Amino acid sequence: MDNLDTLFYPQSVAVIGVSESPQKWAYYPIKHLVDGGFSGGIYPVNPRLSHIFGLKVYPSIEAIPAEVDIAIIVVSAHLVPSVLKECAQKGIRGAVILSGGFEESGMESGAKLQEEIMAIADRAKIKIIGPNSVGIGNPYANFNATLESSFIDACRGNIAIVSQSGGVCAFLLNSMINQNLGISMVMSLGNRWNVDFADLVEYLGKHQQTKVITLYIEGLDNPHKLIEAAKGVVPQKPIVAYKVRGESLNRAAYAHTASLVGRYEVYNAAFSQAGIIAVDDLTELIDVAKALAFQSPPRGNRVAILSGQAGPGIVAATACQHYGLTLAEFSPQGKKKLGKLVGTPFFSENPFDMGAAFVKDTTQIFQQVLEILQREEEVDAIVVSCVYHPLNTPLIESLINLAEDKAVTKTIVAFGSSPKGIADQQIARLENNHIPVYPLPDRAVKALAGLVRYGKVRYLTS
Amino acid sequence: MDNLDTLFYPQSVAVIGVSESPQKWAYYPIKHLVDGGFSGGIYPVNPRLSHIFGLKVYPSIEAIPAEVDIAIIVVSAHLVPSVLKECAQKGIRGAVILSGGFEESGMESGAKLQEEIMAIADRAKIKIIGPNSVGIGNPYANFNATLESSFIDACRGNIAIVSQSGGVCAFLLNSMINQNLGISMVMSLGNRWNVDFADLVEYLGKHQQTKVITLYIEGLDNPHKLIEAAKGVVPQKPIVAYKVRGESLNRAAYAHTASLVGRYEVYNAAFSQAGIIAVDDLTELIDVAKALAFQSPPRGNRVAILSGQAGPGIVAATACQHYGLTLAEFSPQGKKKLGKLVGTPFFSENPFDMGAAFVKDTTQIFQQVLEILQREEEVDAIVVSCVYHPLNTPLIESLINLAEDKAVTKTIVAFGSSPKGIADQQIARLENNHIPVYPLPDRAVKALAGLVRYGKVRYLTS
Questions:
Q1: CB under 8 Å to A186, separation ≥6 — which residues?
Q2: Does residue A2 register a pLDDT over 80?
Q3: Closest CA to A70 of A32, A41, A50
Q4: Residue B247 pLDDT level (bands cut at 50, 70, 90)
Q5: Is B299 buried (19+), middle (13-18) or exposed (0-12) by CB count in 10 A?
Q6: From the CA of B39, how many Å to the nearest CA of chain A?
Q7: For every residue of B11-58, which 3-state class applies, written as one string?
Q8: What was the pLDDT predicted at B264?
Q9: What distance in Å separates residue A323's CA from the closest CA in chain B?
């Protein structure tokens, strides 16, 4: 396998270990593969079944009457070595091992089993995802080789999830699905043998549909490899990473994916040096990824805040200070124009509260305000408050118009909310036109701070 | 007015300034009062209208043929003094002034107007909310005297919102509504004259339906008064506060609600001394309020983490360390029992991953695990991962059973998510039984940290 394409765009897949019982893990990969609409060959294997989900079940890998690209393996750990040998004989070049019970079990027998299967895989040049993975999924190939039911609801997009943990993978997937964020690829690594973060980052760096790479990392055997791979990718594509921290968690992480947590400071410094955007929690991971998927990074950190109600603007300004962003100082001409438009010269400052304009013919005014702010030299990015209120609609409409007219020339992020989905359509129109909308001002600003950090990397390296 | 009850539980309300045009602010208070189902007397006033929303409109306050408790005023700023004089003559004891254009306008004329109305109010002993407020709302009285359409969707509950800003009020309301969090009272302060944070905190301290008080503060003229009021309330009820920070925002905050931001360090120290839980952002404000509304605070900071997938447990553990919580050390007997139940002694540590138990008759096992953890002396609080997966259902069900059986004896918070609302019912069953569920592990832990902080206050003072 020259590259990993065969794993993520297979033509034919054998599923080793399939079960008819929803109480068993082995029920799910074959179900998801079929439900996901995978159009390549699907070959379930189980000597005790004849059919499953309308497909013929084969008694062994050998019995499959066609070439097979990859195998999805979900049998008991002790059976994996012999399964893998059969895969080798069949000429299978990639395997996703969902079974657990290897090095992460903490038992000598598990570690031995893992050594055994890895020796087989290396000898036969089989690329292995796992063991102890929840699988991989590629929406662009309708390919759901995961234990995760959520994946079926993921829509195509440009954010890739690379997660050492299957459970975290599910949380990220659910959050992204519920926020209507499109996915380009899902990869759960598990114990990582001959396919590791570095390989996947390199692969995703060239993957056309992926625009943003998100990583959930517990620990790495060879952080240097990831750092080197990242350096090659970040000039083109951002990488956002959440790394587990706290050496007291070494035991837990080891028992999970056979990895050590290590010292976070060391990681953090290395990430920063490589241009990886390290984040503090999963909310930030998703929010920053969304901003990066939607907007181009700004060239600086000077922010203009625009709102129809002062308070949310002030909260956004507080957050700017907290996350290292600067409130842009408007030019005297800009201030003059803004004050004239809105009708209260005293307000023509940043954060810019347009409350006073609400009595006028507002959509046009707001649109002109947006244009003025975009032309301000001292402004790198604009944060817009879009809280729902019938009288606030003109502000939101003006932003929608700007976005639909493809007249956005600076980085823009928005925050807005409505009760019970009243403004969902407005928000969707903004997001369909690449303006990310967050439910609260602080989150919009924190996401923008991620964009600014990536801007530094991007414009330094290009 | 001995207390503020007349303002928040009025028997009759005059709405001064009503408009039939949805393009005018004056359209909304009367509409919301009627739509909200207020059962007291409603007396709209406008000399140019005869009827609105099926109600008779009076040409003046004087013309109202009944006693009036309070007035909601939404006329141009320059008309407010004469309106207030009429209110005084009518014997009205409270007014909610929604009109803006006073001290916050930054213009001398506005400041003068404010002085004028306040002199009238003080002389006539009229309690004033505002000016420049978006109003007040009391779901228990079906009383929506706000400009906020969102308020109509708020359900009755026990979280009070006291916000200096109307816009932030809307963001908090929307978030709480969308998270099914019940509200006990909404108060938008605006410029604050003779009703300030301290008065409202004191009032809410005695308000039966309010269990948690949330504050959004830009600046205070007399922080000492709030601090003293808070000290009297926090032994019974938690107060959670978000305070704008950054002296560079003085101008913006002044232009908004005529207040100065001040030095955050000073506020923070005073808040901490008073037992007010200061938070860093609006997400935390809502998340902590939710935890406090649902759960009793723990007596200590030692946390047990329980999950069916190790990764989310490890993220929660990382967050515990970040937010000053300790991972509880299980007792040797506890570990032994846990290991035996789950079948892998190596896993019987904290965070406790029950992945290995998924092949067994799991609901019973999980319930026993929860009982063991609740009995552990070294455990003050339990964090449970409830990510949706068909095979994870037994874990969630065991927690639901525990909660429905009223067998929760320690503080419990949960995190869980599902795509497209699949697990909404499970989450609702947990929350109906007072287990708060957050979409991501970090948020659950940060909310728990708020509970722990309140526990310190509560158990120190009682």
A1: A135, A136, A137, A138, A146, A148, A151, A154, A160, A161, A163, A169, A173
A2: no
A3: A41
A4: low
A5: middle
A6: 24
A7: CEEEEECCCCCCCCHHHHHHHHHHHCCCCCEEEEECCCCCEECCEECE
A8: 79
A9: 12
Confidence of residue B23 (pLDDT cuts 50, 70, 90): confident
If phi > 0 it is left, if psi is from -120 to 50 it is alpha, else beta; for residue A424 that is: alpha
**pLDDT (tens digit, 9 = 90+) per residue, B376-402?**
999 999 999 998 888 888 889 999 999
Of A216, A311, A390, Cβ closest to residue B149? A390
User: What whole-number distance in Å separates Cα of residue B128 and Cα of residue B138?
Assistant: 17
* Radius of gyration of the CA atoms of chain B, in A: 25
If you measure CA to CA, which chain B residue comes closest to A150?
A: B419
Q: What is the pLDDT of residue B346?
A: 58
Distance from CA of A168 to the nearest CA of B (A): 5
Q: Is the peptide bond before B351 cis (omega within 30 degrees of 0)?
A: yes
Interacting residues of A24 by C-beta distance below 8 A, sequence separation 6+: none
Give the span between the Cα atoms of A268 and B190, in whole angstroms: 43
* A311 contacts B169? CB cut-off 8 A: yes
| A346 to B107: CB separation less than 8 angstroms, yes or no | yes
Question: Would the pLDDT of A125 be above 60?
Answer: yes
Residues of chain B with C-beta less than 8 angstroms from the C-beta of A29: none
> CA A249, A251, A252 angle in degrees (round to 5)?
65
Query: Please, what's the largest Cα pairwise distance for chain B?
Result: 81
Asked if the Cβ–Cβ distance from A165 to B100 is below 8 Å, we say no
Site from A171, A214, A260, A391 to mutate, B interface, most B CB atoms within 10 angstroms: A171
Q: How confident is the model at residue A347 (pLDDT cuts 50, 70, 90)?
A: low
Token pair 């879009």 in the structure block, residue:
A386
If you average pLDDT over residues A160-166, what whole number do you get? 95
**Residue of chain B nearest A245, judged by CA positions:** B318
